[in-house]
Amino acid sequence: MLKTKLREPKVDRFIPPPKLPPPAPVVDVGDAEMRLAQALLFFAYRDFTNVADRVLEELGLGRAHHRALHFIGRNPGITVSGLLAILRITKQSLARVLNALVDQGYVAQAPGFEDRRLRLLTLTESGLALERRLFDCQRQKLADAYRAAGPQAVEGFRTVMRALMDKGALAYLDGTGSPEDA
After folding, report:
1. Secondary structure (3-state) at 121
2. Between the chain's N and C termini, which has fewer beta carbons within 10 Å?
3. Where are the beta strands (DSSP E) in 133-175?
4. Is the CB of residue 139 less than 8 Å from the CB of residue 146?
């Protein structure tokens, strides 16, 4: 007599993947949308910088001086080459900016600790006060815009701004890169 083997029912071993979020809608990136984005950036930059420009004008300074004050203030002891890398301006242009800021008492220069040829830049007390005054002007404008837009829009703004930056600038902002790489 033949023995018949009883088969166990087949078990489906397929494990479905976890639920994935729906695909993000494709953003229209036609010329009209890009022209609008470009105009928004231009006008926002103009109006954002204009509040500080008024203070700078009173002191015979300009936007390049403001950018130098900002980055020296955020990076006390930054080298001239580090500042050059962040600002992406010529040595000649930076020399004019730094000379004015040093002459007016806003920036101090000191030789490097290990390499005396390096010039380390810091803000003086009056430089700190000026940088803070300029920041306060722009902080209010930005805070008003953030409040009007709401938290989701602020996060979207950050995402777009970061997507516009190169890897060096992102690494610098994230604290994983040096000013020279920005």
Report:
1. strand
2. N
3. none
4. no
